[in-house]
């Protein structure tokens, strides 16, 4: 029994082993088959890749234009992780002059290139632009300048820097057309490679792709910019706000912005201009109602000044004027160019019969006139100041005129604004300023900034476009929305944030920075000492004395000649001029020149002597120039 059981057990074990062996053989066959299937699939996939690469190669070889716009659908090959360096060249701790540099390996992408209007004491200066010396030294790496909008704070520096960089410029059609107008206005003729960007375009480079998304701003065709890298997306909002009351050409692409957030944002550079303003912006439709009310109350002429690039405000003003059957005078080349461009692109509807010239003003009753003005570079305050000071031929401010300043001035223009307001009130004008309800701001307020942060959910956050108090407040808002404090970076101009995987470091003073002053066609050749001289000239004038020295005798020949400009009225100060002449004569007679090399030291002594004399008599310090000649 026991033997039978043992035999039975043995048979069962043998049977079980056979079954296991057979099962293993079947499994091995399946595995071999699976492997063969994978090999075949892999082979086919490789064939498809080779075919696709061949197609791409053929397409690229057939392209006549070197435009890097990629329309092919397909996955980009995974790139090696390259260090990313982000450096503000402008636009931080200041309003305007936006310019940000993103370096990825051996490629540089420039985001915006704006200018800033000069401060009041910058006498004779037309504009202030960022220092681009680092970009010039590395211009072979610069892949292009990518513009977010057509305001001079974002693209105004292009005419002054493009000749040095010689790189392509990317922007929406409206932005590029406005830039072309700006170049034409300045008389600058350069061969620039422009790329008209649409929001669905993708531009491919060695280390990154560049894509775009629509944003709401004071002009249509405004764009945010996304740089796709192997480490993640770098997003630059440009100047933006959220407003659902605007027409479709102004509306932000909320879906695309949210999609970027879902994909993951490595770093966000975002507009901070209104970070200190609570709540939401006034909707544009409400601002339009307030403009309508101001027009309704006006009994005589309405004179409006605004930024030439603020198409939203301009469209409200034009609509209000036409509703009241007022003829419109466009005052200033910048606003004329902007409106003509907007008309060409169907963003603004004004018939020629509704536009008049200065010469035609007298042909219409005052209650049928609207003057819409802006400065030469699109700034609003200077244009109104020139009218108030009667510097524009054919136009002067009359009592009862309604003056509407539909713009919020930048901080460096506020002094000029208050001076202008005083002049206007003295002239008897009724002044309507850009109150919160009259003029909808063009920049996102606190709740709108939170909305952008919540949609994009960035790992790193860099507040830009604002004074330090704005940047600090925006940093606090970012922390409230969940960005880690250690990943919030308030960068100074020239300071670089380097990101490499999970490691980051800040490199202070990594790039040369400073203000480059534009004086006519002179760029960067105006130093602080020149500005100081101009300020002295404007306040105290200039005092020039010239005399001749005998080459042989080393003595004075004749009498000194004295000329002044902006210092004193010569006829009323004849005694002072004569006393100055006598002082020069006495000094030269009592201190004979022994050697020609002493002449420079003598000039310095005479200058100091005259400075004391003039200050004692007038309490003024003119620039004193002493000239001599050898005869």
Automatic annotation (TrEMBL):
Listed GO MF terms: 5'-3' RNA exonuclease activity; RNA binding; RNA endonuclease activity; zinc ion binding
Region (Disordered): 1-37
Swiss-Prot/TrEMBL GO biological process terms: rRNA processing
Main location: cytoplasm
Subcellular location: Cytoplasm
Polar residues composition-biased segments: 1-15
Domain named Metallo-beta-lactamase: residues: 96-291
Top EC class for this record: hydrolase
Protein's UniProt keywords contain RNA-binding: yes
CC terms in the record's Gene Ontology section: cytoplasm
Keyword Oxidoreductase listed: no
One Pfam assignment: RNase_J_b_CASP
Subunit structure of this chain's protein: Homodimer, may be a subunit of the RNA degradosome.
Family to which the UniProt record says this protein belongs: Belongs to the metallo-beta-lactamase superfamily. RNA-metabolizing metallo-beta-lactamase-like family. Bacterial RNase J subfamily.
NCBIfam families reported for this sequence: MG423
Function: An RNase that has 5'-3' exonuclease and possibly endonuclease activity. Involved in maturation of rRNA and in some organisms also mRNA maturation and/or decay.
Protein name: Ribonuclease J
Organism: Gemella sanguinis
């Amino acid at each position: 029994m026991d033997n039978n059981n043992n035999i039975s057990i043995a048979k069962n074990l043998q049977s079980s082993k056979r079954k296991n062996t057979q099962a293993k053989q079947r499994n091995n066959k399946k595995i071999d088959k699976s492997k063969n299937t994978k090999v075949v699939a892999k082979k086919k996939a490789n064939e498809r890749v080779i075919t696709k690469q061949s197609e791409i190669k053929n397409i690229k070889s057939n392209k006549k234009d070197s435009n890097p716009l990629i329309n092919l659908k397909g996955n980009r090959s995974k790139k090696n992780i390259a260090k990313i360096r982000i450096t503000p060249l402008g636009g931080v701790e200041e309003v305007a002059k936006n310019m940000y540099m993103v370096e990825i390996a051996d490629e540089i992408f420039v985001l915006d290139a704006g200018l800033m209007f000069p401060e009041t004491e910058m006498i004779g200066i037309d504009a202030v632009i960022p220092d681009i010396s680092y970009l010039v030294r590395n211009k072979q790496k610069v892949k292009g300048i990518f513009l977010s909008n057509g305001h001079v704070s974002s693209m105004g520096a292009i005419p002054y820097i493009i000749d040095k960089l010689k790189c392509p410029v990317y922007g929406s059609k409206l932005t590029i057309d406005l830039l072309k107008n700006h170049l034409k206005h300045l008389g600058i003729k350069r061969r620039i490679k422009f790329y008209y960007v649409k929001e669905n375009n993708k531009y491919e480079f060695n280390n990154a792709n560049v894509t775009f998304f629509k944003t709401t701003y004071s002009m249509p065709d405004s764009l945010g910019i996304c740089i796709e890298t192997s480490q993640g997306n770098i997003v630059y909002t440009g100047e933006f706000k959220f407003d659902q009351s605007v027409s479709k050409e102004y509306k932000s692409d909320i879906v695309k912005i949210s999609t970027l957030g879902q994909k993951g944002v490595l770093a966000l550079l975002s507009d901070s201009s209104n970070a200190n303003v609570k709540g939401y912006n006034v909707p544009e439709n409400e601002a339009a109602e307030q403009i309508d009310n101001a027009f309704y109350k006006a009994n005589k002429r309405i004179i409006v000044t605004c930024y030439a690039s603020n198409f939203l405000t301009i469209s409200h003003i034009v609509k209000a004027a036409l509703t009241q059957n007022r003829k419109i005078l466009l005052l200033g080349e910048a606003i004329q160019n902007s409106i003509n461009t907007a008309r060409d692109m169907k963003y603004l509807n004004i018939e020629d019969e509704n536009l008049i010239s200065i010469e035609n003003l007298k042909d219409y009753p005052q209650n049928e006139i609207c003057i819409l003005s802006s400065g030469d570079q699109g700034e609003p305050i200077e244009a109104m100041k020139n009218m108030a000071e009667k510097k524009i031929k054919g136009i002067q401010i009359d009592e009862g005129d309604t003056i509407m300043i539909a713009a919020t001035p930048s901080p460096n223009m506020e002094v000029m604004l208050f001076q202008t307001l005083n002049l206007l009130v003295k002239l008897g004008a009724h002044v309507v300023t850009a109150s919160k309800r009259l003029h909808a701001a063009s920049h996102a307020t606190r709740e709108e900034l939170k909305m952008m942060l919540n949609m994009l959910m960035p790992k790193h956050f860099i507040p830009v476009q604002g004074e330090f108090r704005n940047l600090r407040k925006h940093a606090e808002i970012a922390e409230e929305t969940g960005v880690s404090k250690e990943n919030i970076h308030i960068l100074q101009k020239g300071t670089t944030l380097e990101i490499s995987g999970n490691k980051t470091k800040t490199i202070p003073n990594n790039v040369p920075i400073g203000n480059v002053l534009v004086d006519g066609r002179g760029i960067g050749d105006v130093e602080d000492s020149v500005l100081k001289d101009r300020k002295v000239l404007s306040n105290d004038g200039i005092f020039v004395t010239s005399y001749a020295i005998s080459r042989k005798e080393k003595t004075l020949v004749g009498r000194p000649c004295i000329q002044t400009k902006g210092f004193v009225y010569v006829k009323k100060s004849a005694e002072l001029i004569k006393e100055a002449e006598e002082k020069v004569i006495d000094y030269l007679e009592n201190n004979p020149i022994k050697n020609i090399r002493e002449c420079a030291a003598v000039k310095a002594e005479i200058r100091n002597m005259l400075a004391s004399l003039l200050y004692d008599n007038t309490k003024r310090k003119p620039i004193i120039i002493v000239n001599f000649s050898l005869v």
